[in-house]
Amino acid sequence: MSSNSSSSPSKLQSSSSNGSPSTDLPLKPIPGNYGLPFFGPIKDRLDYFYRQGKDTFFQTRIQEHQSTVFRTNMPPGPFISSNSNVIALLDAISFPILFDTSKVQKLNVFVGTYMPSTALTGGYRVCAYLDPSEPKHALLKRLIFSILASLHDKFIPLFRNCLSELFVNLEDQFSDKSKVYFNTISDKMSFDFVFRLFCDQNPSDTRLGSKGSTMSDKWLFFQLAPLMALGLPKLLNFVEDVLLHTFPLPAFLVKSDYNKLYNAFYGSMASILDEAEQSGIKRNEACHNLVFMAGFNTYGGLKTLLPALIKWVGLAGEKLHRELCDEIRTIVRAEGGITFSALEKMTLTKSVVYEALRIEPPVAFQYAKAKDDLVVHSHDAAFEIKKGEMIFGYQPLATKDPKVFEDPEEFVGHRFVGEGEKLLKYVYWSNGREIDDPTVENKQCPAKDLVVLLSRVMLVELFLRYDTFTIEAGTLLLGSSATFTSLTKATSI
Ligand code: HEM
């Protein structure tokens, strides 16, 4: 895209950040304003958390400005973020500028307009907060690629093992109750999986015992509280706003839990830490990065991903379940097991996973700063963004863009089958297009393929064991909840 601050306001030649053909769109000023200093950000924060709620917050502004690109403040605002002014991008066309690291900087913007204290990560800025222009980003991301490559053969058997324990647990709970809350058992399974994957031992055999997932939850909460509302009665909104959104929670309150996690990883990852040292990263810095990779990126990611997947597949109903059973069982029988090649042949299962990632991307927010003056375009206009301005994308609106996806609010299991595959370039959950690959030069999730693989294995295990199931869905601080209300065992395999 060409930066062109001197172009006439009527038409401007620009191309989209994803390299699609140039378009000739009218250059318009970005609508919206930030209000008065301090009061504007507070008003927007109260609208976002309490008066309107997330989705209405964005929808009303799209209506008001008749534009999917506009200026607003994003929480938390004072006093946690020093500047909460952003340019919001809420359509599929403008959004990918956030992935283009030649045009935007991703320094310290991993969670938004504030950065949690580095006291929560051993005093280090971990990989996710680094911009690719910082040499350490490539060093650390290369280490993560290398770890993932070395664990490749473990992914399927280990995850199946963990899922097997999860389903035994689910059935046990069903024998006592008529409903089973999925998130808690999913979190426990996810932490066990993460620890067994990276540390090659069961967390219960370490000093973490069975508390790894709750310790991680607490540590995650200290980092993400400024973005959360607890859903308390209205009377308590003010107190909550002061406690969670105005000042950072003191990191020392979670230090002892974090140290336990750190020590457990440090004690079990000797060979990975050796590799890190050889590549020039200090041993303790590498370990803090690995705790973040395991506890935030992987455990935190699975914590939102798996309940959302179960929720959407559950709500899709029996017809889709029958089709998934047919596909999964036929291919597993023909291939003689659950292998990478068997999973690759499951076109419907693959599509269902992409659809879940489209309709409810596990990480909803992306931020980046313009490196230079640049021009971004939506479907119907071009907008100039100045060097240093913060750009923000609320991904669920970009991946439910009605000008790209038919029935965007519907969960359509077959959406990405056959010709539908062409739409994968509009699936952005990994902080990049689904057809692109993570590299050390970009900020796309290095575990993009692993995450898709695990989601497929989850569906395969589910529909090998059960014919159908029903779900009650709910919303949580960040993400969805799923409660199983019935589970019908497989009649044929
Ligand atoms: C389980 C589900 C996962 C989800 C939903 C997820 C999602 C994401 C997203 C959206 C980003 C980009 C954030 C941004 O800069 O805006 C990201 C980055 C990252 N993810 Fe993942 N991730 C998951 C699993 C993992 C796993 C298993 C690993 C580790 C092996 C991992 C390691 C990372 C790292 C290191 C980054 C920063 C990349 C960079 O700085 O270039 N993630 N992830």
UniProtKB/TrEMBL annotation:
SUPFAM superfamilies in alphabetical order: Cytochrome P450 (SSF48264)
Keyword Iron among record annotations: yes
Organism classification: Eukaryota, Viridiplantae, Streptophyta, Embryophyta, Tracheophyta
Biological source species: Quercus lobata (Valley oak)
Cofactor: heme
Chain's gene name: LOC115968961
CDD domains tied to this protein: CYP74
GO biological process, alphabetically ordered: fatty acid metabolic process; sterol metabolic process
Identification of the protein by name: Allene oxide synthase
Stretch list, region Disordered: 1-26
Sequence positions that bind heme: 445
